[in-house]
Write a structure and sequence with these properties.
The chain has 181 residues and is mostly helical. It has one domain: Ferritin (Up-down Bundle). Helix content is 69%, strand content 0%. The protein has five helices and no strands. The longest helix is centred in the last third of the chain and has 31 residues. The model has no long low-confidence stretch (mean pLDDT 94). Bound molecules: fe (ii) ion (FE2). The site of fe (ii) ion has 2 residues, from loops.
Length: 181
């Protein structure tokens, strides 16, 4: 019988165990740099996905329909980005997210467990998280470029564009909130 590892174990991302060490022409240092730059982005995407769904589920107020649908559309796009990033890491021979506790070790945005968040505050928090994540993606793109991984850089450029689209929508929704309240 195998013993289940405790959730406190620090998960190692690199080097991968031999059967998972995908052959690549990147050096080990290059592959490691990419792996360590991209995995926190995946953790943040999971955290933001859950937060966006949390707000989709716990919304109240006169803008219910608009925000409920906007948050769902944004959650779908965030979720799609996760597999793209995780499989880029695997293509260069790194390992990726293992569990919820692993996400918690790597995420850089905070969770949101409040009983109630007013709708305008939800929009503001998501806007700030997307802005923070956009900044991190831009930094990770530089790491990929410096380490000859243009395919991951290219994938991240598309994900950055989607993140900035969300930020733009949320920012403009915030303008409506401050003008009408
Ligand atoms: Fe739903």
């Amino acid at each position: 019988m195998t013993t289940r590892q405790t959730t406190k174990t620090q998960v190692r991302l690199f080097p991968a165990p031999a059967p998972l060490a995908t052959v690549t022409d990147l050096t080990a240092q290059e592959a490691q740099a990419v792996t360590e730059a991209v995995n926190p982005l995946i953790a943040d995407a999971f955290a933001l996905y859950v937060k966006t769904k949390n707000f989709h589920w716990h919304l109240s107020g006169s803008h219910f329909r608009d925000y409920h649908l906007l948050f769902d559309e944004q959650a779908d796009a965030i979720f799609e980005s996760i597999d793209i990033m995780a499989e880029r890491v695997r293509r260069v021979g790194g390992t990726t997210i293992r569990s919820i506790s692993h996400i918690n070790q790597l995420q850089t945005i905070g969770d949101d467990n409040n009983d109630f968040v007013p709708p305008g505050e939800m929009v503001k928090r998501l806007m700030e998280d997307n802005a923070h994540i956009a900044q991190n993606i831009r930094a990770a793109i530089e790491v990929c470029d410096r380490n000859r991984d243009s395919a991951t850089s290219n994938a991240l450029q598309g994900i950055l564009d989607e993140t900035e689209r969300r930020k733009w929508f949320l920012f403009e929704v915030m303008q409506g909130i401050s003008n009408t309240n």
